[in-house]
Write a sequence for this structure.
């Protein structure tokens, strides 16, 4: 199959462009041997199916980060390049264009964000540019689809113009000359969005706005998540309950198979949060307790990403993150990690140095619970009012800050400064956002469900054969003595290695006090990442750093759990 | 008058004169828009944090250490 590559600077609307070209069948792949992900899809071109690859954004072909290195490598494999150019920043974008034209792959140029350029009083003579570059140039607006018909129909005209290889200085000179010849800028006033943009990046107004945005985001997640549960998922599971009960009767109401599939009956019926069978709790937790919040969270996150707000938040918080040994990009692994630690850990690659990646990944493992875990924490503690939940999150926040400060001091290496483009605000395309949310939700379903199901099965089997009881008795002195928790809570800690949401679920039948639950879920959040995250961290950090990171996590869990016992339980 | 980008006042028009540092550093800045001859202005400084500058239609957040190595000319 022919491969068409989408290549361009970051923030040129490439992902919207990508979702406009491709159908529903989109997959995220990992570039072999690296931690860089790219998106792949397909389209029909003159009756032939071709592969479309969204190459990570890059400013030049002389890479400055791992993502850019991958971008350059991927160029080797393409049959054709669509160079997506930001029309509002023609000059900066043309540098990459010229570099691409010096290579041996045919290139077609899309002048994207054409409407934006018009609003800004920028006039570009596309015909003239086409003549100067020696390959087709087509104005496009990815959000509306304007220009796409022409672009697709002209793909076959894409040429290898065989430009001479220039030195950096000469290339910039040529970029300057071309820009002067094809574009004209007429004066215009600040738009209301630009005024708003200034307000959101100036500290005096920006910090209060950031606080509002974060509060509003979480309020939205809670509101939508709860709404989905109350009006869609719970009613569906109510319909399903009689079927599960019939199955329970069919299995005779007890026995190993019944324990595995249905679990334990509570007061003669199925309790979705406590029965713990594969076909009861095993599907209720992922679909009705966790999925609704995941959907809501990723909707918010995609909005913050696509609107361009995230880089502003990164700029505003840079000072804080810099003290923790990272810089403003740290907001990205943090936010992604709240959705799911796995993409969070993957995204630590935005950092330049090993020190930054180590700190960011370790803090993610210690102090950032994922949405699955958060929804279960809300489920478990929600009935006790706001304080128990607040204690959990304030503790985790304090740990994040304290350990960041400590690691910044003691982890060797450098923490380079932030250097980040703050793109203009753009109205997110509903289509591209939906696709993104769907991709992420699908990832959760595909990669998280197997762990959850196998967790339920393993726990039930071990339980049936008595291993867990023995273990819980053996761990009881430590659990009771140090954390103030019943011995059986150790089972949850073990299962937490598979899935944290499952583990929180396992705490519920233990009839603990609210403060005991607070200690248990906090320790659960800190002590170890789930196995999926662990695997990514292994790839990301290497075993030596992962071992260090793990020791820090376990040490912190023991320490913090002990301190919480003294403070919260008073024993 | 030649000053360092870090000392530029908000709203004052300036022009990039030189970049001080290795080739990699210079290229890094140029490909993102901070290049000799470009008009540059300061939008804001985060307390203890990066500067936000404007070059052409691009806004960039740039750390103080880096901004200290960009020499600009003002008042001409």
């Amino acid at each position: 199959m022919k491969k068409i590559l989408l290549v361009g600077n970051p923030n040129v609307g490439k992902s919207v462009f990508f979702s406009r070209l491709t159908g529903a069948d989109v997959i995220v792949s990992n570039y072999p041997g690296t931690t860089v992900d790219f998106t792949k899809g397909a389209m029909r071109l003159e009756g032939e199916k071709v592969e479309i690859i969204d190459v990570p954004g890059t400013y030049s072909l002389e890479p400055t980060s791992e993502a850019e290195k991958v971008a350059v490598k991927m160029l080797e494999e393409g049959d054709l390049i669509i160079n997506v150019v930001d029309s509002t920043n023609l000059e900066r974008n043309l540098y990459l264009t010229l570099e691409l034209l010096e290579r041996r792959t045919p290139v077609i140029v899309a002048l994207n964000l054409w409407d934006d350029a018009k609003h800004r009083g920028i006039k570009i003579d596309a015909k003239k540019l086409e003549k100067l570059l020696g390959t087709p140039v087509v104005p496009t607006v990815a959000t509306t689809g304007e220009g796409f018909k022409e672009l697709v129909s002209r793909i076959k005209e894409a040429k290898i113009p065989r430009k001479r290889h220039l030195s950096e200085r000469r290339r910039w000179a040529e970029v300057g000359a071309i820009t002067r010849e094809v574009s004209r800028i007429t004066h215009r006033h600040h738009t209301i969005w630009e005024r708003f943009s200034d307000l959101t990046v100036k500290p005096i107004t920006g910090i209060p706005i950031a606080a509002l945005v974060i509060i509003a985001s979480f309020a939205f997640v809670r509101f939508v998540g709860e709404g989905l549960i109350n009006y869609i998922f719970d009613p569906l599971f109510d319909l399903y309950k009689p079927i599960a009960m019939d199955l329970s009767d069919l299995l005779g109401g007890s026995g190993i198979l019944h324990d595995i599939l249905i679990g334990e009956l509570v007061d003669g019926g199925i309790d979705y949060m406590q029965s713990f069978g594969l076909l009861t709790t095993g599907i209720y937790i992922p679909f009705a307790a966790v999925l609704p919040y995941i959907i809501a969270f990723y909707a918010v996150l995609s909005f913050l990403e696509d609107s361009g707000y995230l880089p502003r938040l990164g700029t505003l918080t840079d000072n804080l993150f810099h003290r923790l040994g990272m810089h403003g990009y740290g907001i990205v692994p943090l936010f992604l990690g709240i959705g799911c630690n796995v993409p969070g850990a993957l995204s630590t690659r935005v950092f330049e140095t090993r020190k930054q990646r180590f700190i960011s990944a370790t803090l993610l493992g210690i102090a950032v619970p994922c949405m699955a875990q958060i929804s279960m924490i809300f489920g478990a503690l929600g009935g006790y009012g706001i304080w128990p939940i607040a204690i959990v999150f304030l503790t985790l926040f304090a740990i994040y800050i304290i350990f960041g400060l400590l690691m910044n001091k003691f982890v060797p290496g450098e923490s380079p400064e932030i250097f980040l483009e703050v793109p203009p605000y753009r109205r997110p395309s509903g289509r591209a956002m939906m696709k993104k949310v769907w991709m992420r939700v699908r990832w959760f379903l595909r990669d998280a469900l197997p762990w959850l199901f196998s967790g339920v099965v393993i726990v039930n089997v071990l339980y049936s054969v008595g291993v867990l009881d023995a273990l819980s008795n053996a761990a009881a002195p430590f659990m009771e003595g140090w954390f103030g928790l019943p011995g059986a809570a150790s089972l949850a800690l073990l299962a937490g290695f598979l899935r944290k949401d499952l583990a929180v679920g396992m705490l519920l039948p233990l009839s603990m006090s609210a403060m005991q639950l607070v200690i248990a879920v906090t320790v659960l959040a800190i002590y170890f990442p789930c196995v999926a995250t662990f695997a990514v961290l292994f790839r990301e950090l290497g075993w030596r750093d992962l071992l260090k990171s793990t020791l820090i996590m376990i040490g912190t869990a023991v320490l913090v759990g002990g301190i919480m016992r003294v403070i919260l339980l008073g024993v | 008058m030649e000053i360092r980008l870090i000392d530029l006042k908000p709203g004052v028009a300036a022009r990039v004169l030189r970049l001080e540092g290795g080739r990699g550093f210079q290229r890094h800045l140029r490909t993102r828009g901070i290049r000799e001859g470009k008009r540059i202005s300061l939008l804001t400084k985060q307390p203890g944090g990066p500067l936000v500058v404007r070059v052409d239609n691009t806004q960039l957040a740039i750390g103080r250490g880096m901004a200290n190595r960009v020499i600009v000319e003002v008042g001409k």
About this structure: The domain at 3-185 of chain A is CATH 3.40.50.300 (Rossmann fold). Chain A has two domains: 3-185, 203-569. Chain A touches chain B through 37 residues (CB under 8 Å).
